[in-house]
Amino acid sequence: MEVSSVMEIEKKYLLKSGSWKKNIQRSEKIVQFYLTEPGHQPTLRLRAIDGQGYVTLKYPSKNADILIREEYEYQIPIEDVLAQQRQAKGNIIEKTRHYVVAADQHIWEVDEFLSPDPLLVLAEIELNEPDQNFELPDWIGKDVTSDPEYSNLSLAFKNIK
């Protein structure tokens, strides 16, 4: 079984315009949910991406300016993901992820959320090193990397009593 990456290094931003859409390479539909609640470590996430299933263990980041955390992702049968969906904690997240090429050739992941917040659009860039240089495209807005309100886990539990 293949593990995707062990260390995830990323920055997250709001968008200030839709000009990124002209540089979309490809898009995919994602349905994801959690089997753990906020505060439980590691976070256990299940995803269905275009008919493929994935389980991910994520550990918390210890850095405020950039997300650096251990992440272990495994492909599993889509049937296993669908069978566990009734066990979801919080809201189920549905989004379209677009892979967008910037002028400096970095690939940005732009997520347009369908639920639970259909007005939210976030862009992430995954880096190889914490101090890696990259240019901010003109459509990038506020840096929300250190704002927990914009984590997918927080979105899954937004407005849950």
Keywords:
161 residues; mainly beta; 9 strands
Topology:
Blueprint: E1 7-15, E2 24-34, E3 43-49, E4 52-58, E5 67-76, H1 78-84, E6 89-101, E7 107-115, E8 121-126, E9 140-143, H2 152-156
Antiparallel strand pairs: 1-5, 1-8, 1-9, 2-3, 2-6, 3-4, 4-5, 6-7, 7-8
Explained architecture:
With 161 residues, this protein is mainly beta. It has one domain (7-156): Beta Barrel (Hypothetical Protein Pfu-838710-001), CATH 2.40.320.10. 7% of the residues lie in helices and 47% in strands. It contains two helices and nine strands, in the order E-E-E-E-E-H-E-E-E-E-H. The protein has helices at 78-84, 152-156, and strands at residues 7-15, 24-34, 43-49, 52-58, 67-76, 89-101, 107-115, 121-126, 140-143. The protein has an eight-stranded antiparallel barrel with strand order 1-5-4-3-2-6-7-8. Strand 3 (43-49) and strand 4 (52-58) form a beta hairpin. It is globular and about 40 Å long. The model has no long low-confidence stretch (mean pLDDT 92).
Write a short abstract of this structure.
With 161 residues, this protein is mainly beta. The protein has helices at residues 78-84, 152-156, and strands at 7-15, 24-34, 43-49, 52-58, 67-76, 89-101, 107-115, 121-126, 140-143.
CATH fold title: Hypothetical Protein Pfu-838710-001
Mean pLDDT metric: 92
State which percent range the strand residues make up: over 45%
Number of strands: 9
- Return the CATH architecture: Beta Barrel
Topology as a string of helices (H) and strands (E): EEEEEHEEEEH
Structural class: mainly beta
CATH homologous superfamily designation: Hypothetical Protein Pfu-838710-001
The biggest beta sheet is recorded as:
8 strands, antiparallel, barrel
Q: How many whole angstroms does the radius of gyration measure?
A: 15 Å
Helix content: under 10%
Instruction: Provide the spatial order of strands within the biggest beta sheet.
Output: 1-5-4-3-2-6-7-8
Give the tally of structural domains: 1
Number of separate helices: 2
Mass-distribution shape: globular
Gap from first CA to last CA: 38 Å
Task: List segments where confidence is low: pLDDT < 50 over at least 5 consecutive residues.
Answer: none
CATH class wording:
Mainly Beta
